[in-house]
Structures
1.
Amino acid sequence: FLFQMQMLDKFPMEGGQKDPKQRIIPFLPGKILFRRSHIRDVAVKRLIPIDEYCKALIQLPPYISQCEEVLQFFETRPDDLAPPKE
């Protein structure tokens, strides 16, 4: 969500703030409320919409898809290489 807000602030025209028809930044899939026992189910349900969001994001023009915020968002972190076992 914070990343999405950064993108909309940095690229207001592409985010459709002046003209919604001009929006090219994809919409972030909405939040889903869940109980603690449903974490995995919710994650699986959100996998496809979030995957589509990421694919749409990297297909944007290079001045957006290769901006610092996008590069940092997709940057590999140590936890990605050795994820927690839980």
2.
Amino acid sequence: MSRILDQRLLLLVISFSASVQSTKVLSEWKKCGDPECEKAMSRVQATTDYLGPDCRYLNFKTGEEIMVYSKLSRENENLWAGSKGKDFGYFPRDAVKVEEVLIGEEVEVLTKETDFLCLHEDKYTFE
């Protein structure tokens, strides 16, 4: 009985650590087209297929169009956030090429907990 309890505890610890890892803050700062990050900054096209490591990331295929709404800055400048249809998430900036710039100036703002929201089976998970 003790062995079963030990195995369950180990699985719980592994599950918890994977959950925390997938909801960690990716950067404390981001650049946007406006202070609320509501305006699209640019329209980009995927230059490669991309499958993200967890649900915070946007998956896409080569040639798909993505609207960019923010770009992480300072600690993690390689990740941009955008949407493709109804899907939204982060993706590496080197996986796309800019087709059209839609804003004149970028604004740097602090990220929020909701920027790193992960949706699992209709439940929201925050760090």
3.
Amino acid sequence: RVDRRCCADAALATAHGLELVLLKPRRFMNLNGLSVASAAEIYNLGPEDIYLVHDDLDKALGKVAIKLGGSARGHNGVQSCISALHSSDMTRLRVGIGRP
């Protein structure tokens, strides 16, 4: 469903006893941190509760990596999230898209 409070598509789910909020921001990539920060406030989530899924040009197509914290490594969407949350402590799932 569209959640106008955070300008995103949101879905609530439960898996293995955990309550999940799946969020797809509807803003430009370099502003999506505003949606993530709004959702974090609405659903009472801290940066450590957030799993950020994003593309990675430096990984081969289809390869995935997970890491905790760190810099944005030039990704404007990740930088937007770090800036809006005032923290880089979120877990990131990097999905390789390869270079053209």
